[in-house]
Design brief:
- Helix content is 24%, strand content 31%.
- It is of the alpha+beta class and 344 residues long.
- It folds into 3 domains: 76 residues, Roll (Structural Genomics Hypothetical 15.5 Kd Protein In mrcA-pckA Intergenic Region, Chain A); 82 residues, 2-Layer Sandwich (Pseudouridine synthase); 164 residues, Pseudouridine synthase, CATH 3.30.2350.
- The strands form 4 sheets. Strands 8, 9, 10, 11, 12, 13, 16, 17, 18 and 19 form a 10-stranded mixed β-sheet that branches.
- A hairpin with a 3-residue loop joins strand 8 and strand 9.
Length: 344
């Protein structure tokens, strides 16, 4: 018996097997090779070394022999897509780097992975150049391991694994939701509660497969949980802090659309229109000016905390808000102060 679940924007997958009653003792790596399509023995062994193969909730070595009735679970990173990666000398804002991983601060406008019309100029192209002299990459593996992703027009922190063992260990942390991620967003209006939790299954929008959709009855999609806190009420928009408990595609963007507070200038989820405020032409022009300064959804992956795959130490990283978001916040404060002064 087997179950499979994709998670974290399909960067890794989870399998569960119950060993058949008639199964003879067999090394677990050989057992899994017969059950996982297009998966090499090395990939399975690396997952075991990383502690990602469990038998009845206990990690096992590749040499462990399976027995009837046991429950086997395995978390595997998806193999990189078979796309030729062209190394490109694109500047990277590297916050930290060692033999196992890199932490970078991604700018707006950069696609993370090649594909779907973006075969060059991506983060992976930049990483391939940055890592081209590393031993593993000199041997022909020019594909850095993406542990998670953020959208093209979202800024902020990403962690990248530099080898498969590190990828397995980091992937498990994301899968188990032990990684702490904090985002800052600007949203239209002010959420009804200063602190709250948005819950709702997220899946592909049946009318537009490029967008995500909340299914509150849980009939489709996967469970998604976003915790938020209002940091600043700026009048017709708010600065909010978000903590992700799950990692679904477009999670923050679609969850705030669902509670009718879409992200400021989020064209895909309805935030690129004037949703709050007055009908005065001066105000309308002010918002348009803000859209021009921040021509994307107002979302920044501000901080990330995880356990280092080799040392076991807690690694914490933080990045400042990008200039476009800071400018809009300053402009909005000034605008609201002017309204208060004029009303006096």
């Amino acid at each position: 018996m087997t179950d499979k679940e994709n998670d974290q924007q399909e960067l890794y997958e989870h399998y569960r097997f119950i060993v058949d009653a008639g199964q003879k003792p067999l090394r677990i790596d050989k057992y899994l090779i017969n059950r996982l399509e297009s998966t090499s023995r090395t990939r399975i062994q690396n997952a075991a070394v990383a502690g990602n193969i469990m038998v009845d909730n206990q990690p096992v070595k590749p040499s462990y022999k399976v027995k009837p009735g046991e429950t086997i679970t395995i978390v595997l990173p998806h193999p990189p897509r078979v796309i030729e990666i062209v190394p490109q000398d694109i500047p990277l804002d590297v916050l930290y780097e060692d033999n196992d991983l890199m932490v970078i601060n991604k700018p707006a406008g950069m696609v993370v992975h090649p594909g779907y019309g973006n075969y060059t100029g991506t983060l992976v192209n930049a990483l391939a150049w940055h890592l081209k002299d590393e031993p593993a990459f000199r041997e022909g593996d020019t594909r850095p391991w993406l542990v998670h992703r953020i959208d093209k027009n979202t800024t902020g922190i990403l962690v990248i694994a530099k080898n498969e063992i590190a990828m397995n260990k980091l992937a498990k942390q994301f899968f188990l939701h032990t990684v702490k991620r904090r985002y800052i967003a600007l949203v239209w209006g002010t959420p009804p509660d200063q602190k709250g939790t948005i819950e709702g299954h997220i899946g592909r929008n049946p009318r537009d497969r490029t967008k995500m959709f909340v299914f509150p009855d849980g009939s489709q999609g996967k469970p998604a949980i976003t915790h938020y806190r209002v940091l600043e009420d700026l009048g017709y928009i708010s600065k909010v802090e978000c903590h992700l408990e799950t990692g679904r595609t477009h999670q923050i963007r679609v969850h705030f659309q669902y509670i009718r507070h879409p992200l400021f200038n989020d064209a895909e989820y309805g935030g690129d229109r004037i949703l709050k405020g007055t009908t005065f032409s001066k105000y309308q022009q002010f918002v348009i000016n803000c859209f021009n300064i921040l021509p994307r959804q107002a979302l920044h992956a501000k901080s990330l905390e995880f356990i280092h795959p080799s040392t076991g130490k807690i690694m914490s990283f933080d990045s400042p808000l990008p200039d476009d978001m800071e400018q809009v916040i300053r402009k909005w404060k000034k605008y609201m102060e002017g309204r208060t002064t004029n009303s006096d």
